[in-house]
Amino acid sequence: MTEPFPILPQKAVSRRLDSMGVLLSGLCLVHCLAGLFLVGMLGIGGGLLLSPEIHRYGLMLAVLIGAATIGIGALRHGHKLPLALGLAGIALMASAVIAGHGTAEVVLTVWGVVLLAAAHLVNIRHNAC
């Protein structure tokens, strides 16, 4: 008889969370760029797309997933590059939330999510070893 909820190996769970982190980083990037286009070019969606709550919740989710995967991965495999990239990305994203709406927010967010996604990808590679 098989178990209804098989226990996944720790590496598999970490890989799935890292993959989710890459996906969420990509969605954040799309949200940011789509927001610029829709609000700046078309003048629509400002209330929803520019809501500060979306950015705060996104940052909290990024910190939780990043800590769970990149932090634990760095402890397991000993490579510090994913940790450095992840911390830099989260710091830039936090700076964007503090900066408020405008060019600085966009630049900080885009660079932050790119660095965080890169950290997750490097972490996946090191965890595969």
Describe this entry's structure for a reader:
- With 129 residues, the protein is an all-alpha fold.
- Helices cover 82% and strands 0% of the residues.
- It has five helices and no strands.
- It has helices spanning 10-41, 46-49, 52-77, 81-99, 103-127.
- Helix 1 packs antiparallel against helix 3 (52-77), helix 1 (10-41) packs antiparallel against helix 5 and helix 4 (81-99) runs antiparallel to helix 5 (103-127).
- The chain is elongated and about 45 Å long.
- The two termini are 32 Å apart.
- The model has no long low-confidence stretch (mean pLDDT 77).
Please give the structural blueprint.
Layout lengths: L9 H32 L4 H4 L2 H26 L3 H19 L3 H25 L2
Helix pairs in contact: 1-3, 1-5, 3-4, 3-5, 4-5
Based on the structure, what is the oligomeric state of the protein chains?
A: single chain
* Largest β-sheet summary: none
Q: Which descriptor suits the 3D outline?
A: elongated
Cα gyration radius (Å) = 16 Å
What's the helix-strand series? HHHHH
Helix content: over 70%
Are there runs of 5+ residues with pLDDT below 50, and where?
A: none
Beta-strand share of residues = under 5%
Taking the alpha carbons of the first and last residues, their distance comes to: 32 Å
Class by helix and strand content?
Answer: mainly alpha
Overall strand count: 0
Number of helices: 5
Mean pLDDT: 77
